[in-house]
Every structure is written in structure tokens, then in C-alpha cells.
Amino acid sequence: MIHLIWSIINLTIVFFFIYLIIGFIKKGKQIFKPQFKIVSILIMLIGVLQIISASNSKKNSNKISITKNYNKQSNIKRKQVILENNLTFDINMQVKYSVDQNDYIPVESNSSLTGFVTGYEWKFKSINTKKLDSNGKAEFIANGILDWNLFGITVYGQNKIFTGIIE
After folding, report:
1. Residue 1 DSSP one-character state
2. Are 22 and 40 in contact (CB under 8 A)?
């Protein structure tokens, strides 16, 4: 529930920023009401700075190479695991395996947020996994940071460690 409230707060600030920009264009500085003048100007400045800096920011691919020495001509299988299932979003992980006869070798992994993710950013940091065993299962330990952003600014970085079995 806290994730939903955080996302709603972020959306409210974004809509208020849009209201301020449109109002400033139409009415000028009359849009700033005296009791909210400082907050309104601050939100407007932060919003403009975020728009300017967004073009220069690099995106995190959340892709991790596990094995570099494998037969690139062999078949590829993908396994997906839901690391965390919240009310508003999920953290998913996908592991790519190189299939050499009956040997499944983990090659790379990526992870992402899906769902209503306003105000969050997922940074996939590491994964530790082995080959799939004869039952088609492998244990894993995955690690990442869930950033809680308020209007594009990271307020809190929550370290997440997941353990489980890939089937």
C-alpha cells in the first residue's frame, strides 16, 4: 500500500507542475498564490531542471553477463522469475541459458520493474546462479537497489536481496 501512496504523491506533483507551467504561460506570475508561492516556485524550478537534466542522463540496462565462455552457436533458453510481487509493481528477472546437449549454462540475466512504477527506479546489481540441475532447477541469489524518487530525485535507495529457485 505504501508503494501506491508514493506513486500517487509523485503523480500529484507532476500534475501540479504541469498546472503551474500552463498557468504561468496563460496568466503569468498571477498563478502563484501567496500562501503557496515558495512551494510552487520550488516545484516549478525543480521540474524545469529535471526536464533539462533528463536528456543528459544515461539509462541503466539492468543486464548482467554471467558467463563469457560458452558456445555461441548453441540453442538459447530463457527462464523468468518474479522476484517481488507488490500491489502496484513487480520486479522480474530473466536468465538466459546456453543449451549444450543437456547442459544448461547461465549466460546473462536482466531484471526490470513492471506495472505502475511512477516514483521508482530499479538497479539490478548482481546475480549468483549455477547450471540447471537434472530436475531443471537452479538456486539463485540476486541483488539490486530500488530507488524511491520524488519528482525525479532519489530520496531513498532500498537494497533488495532475493533468493530462490529458477524452474
Report:
1. -
2. no
In this structure, which long-range contacts are made by residues 41-49, counting pairs with CB atoms below 8 Å and at least 24 apart in sequence?
43/13, 43/16, 43/17, 43/151, 44/17, 44/20, 46/151, 46/152, 46/153, 47/14, 47/17, 47/20, 47/21, 47/151
The pLDDT tens digits of the residues spanning 85-98 come to 988 899 999 988 88
| DSSP β-bridge partners for residue 148 | 120, 156
What pTM does this model have?
A: 0.79
Q: DSSP state, 59?
A: P
Query: Closest by alpha carbon to 94, among 110, 112, 113, 114?
Result: 110
Strand-pair category, 89-100 with 138-150 = unpaired
Q: List residues bridging with 103 in a β-sheet.
A: 100
- What does the alpha-carbon distance between residue 147 and residue 104 come to, in Å, rounded to a whole number? 33
How confident is the model over 54-68, as pLDDT tens digits?
666 667 778 888 877
Nearest to 51 by CA among 20, 8, 23, 5: 20
Distance CA 156, CA 147 (A): 6
